[in-house]
Specification:
Elements: E1 10-14, E2 26-34, E3 37-43, E4 54-58, E5 63-67, E6 71-77, E7 85-92
Antiparallel strand pairs: 1-6, 2-5, 2-7, 3-4, 3-6
Protein name: Hypp2197 protein
Amino acid sequence: MCSEGKKNPTTRFGAVAPELPFEEHSVVWLAQVKGSVLYRLEPDPICETTCKPIGVTLKPGETLVVPQDLWTIQLKNSKDSEPAVVVAATGTWD
């Protein structure tokens, strides 16, 4: 996923707005290649009484792995960041 040329776009992944395929017990890997991106994890209704929103900024070389059935992921370029490049993939775990 590349957000070059766009000013602070927001992209969502997960149970609420699935732009990536969703399967039971699926996970999404987000690998930061260039720039920095703010990731906000919002709990899915199944987890909202226990889980609290989480914010994390990834830098190049860092990876975030998130279960899609518990979280919705929003990502946004940092305001002062160079254009960002993120590699995203999905998979399942049992």
